[in-house]
Amino acid sequence: MKLKHLAMSAAVAAATWGTAGLVLGDDGGGEVSPIYGVKLPEGYRQWALIAPAQEATPLNELRAVVGNGLAMKAYQDSTLPFPDGTVLVKLAWKHVQSPEFEPASIPGAATTVQVMVKDSQRYASTGGWGFGRFINGKPADEAQHQTCFACHQARVQNHDWVFTRFAP
Ligand code: HEC
């Protein structure tokens, strides 16, 4: 009984800490991305879906973009720019054919997890966004992080440098 209680408070603490800490990516666990110092946010796998996406070859991936509570609220209210504390995460997998039903596509091996954290002061020079790309939970190298903002900046200036629109 006591143990169960303890485990429960730990879970609650983790959840609370997760949401508060991940804003600046400083929740104490995991390695940070070069340049931006962004971490994989706690609990992102339980976040709400914003939209799926598919990437053609050579990458040939299925993707899902999810957001924290602030992100979902901003999408719901069509708030732009996204407020500080918004976190967007893009999960990606190899696109494979279902072995059970040919016309169906399913996720294969996980490839990258990418993160964008909004902090308009800290990341003022990159549209207010800090970027992180993780492979097996480890941040990718600095060269890869130099590419992030340039592509987002060139193509989605009119949407706070965010590609993904909410899929109803
Ligand atoms: C050559 C263009 C390009 C580069 C470089 C790029 N992205 Fe993106 N990014 C996209 C596109 C296009 C999407 C929309 C979803 C999709 O098609 O996968 C996206 C989506 C995202 C999203 C979901 C939010 C959104 O804007 O839709 C995150 C998070 C993200 N990228 C992070 C990164 C990080 C981190 C890097 C650098 C390591 C990076 N991106 C580099 C093109 C790019």
TrEMBL record:
It comes from the Bacteria. Pfam families: Cytochrome_P460 (PF16694). Residues 41-164 form the Cytochrome P460 domain. This is Cytochrome C oxidase subunit III. The lineage of its organism: Bacteria, Pseudomonadati, Pseudomonadota, Gammaproteobacteria, Pseudomonadales.
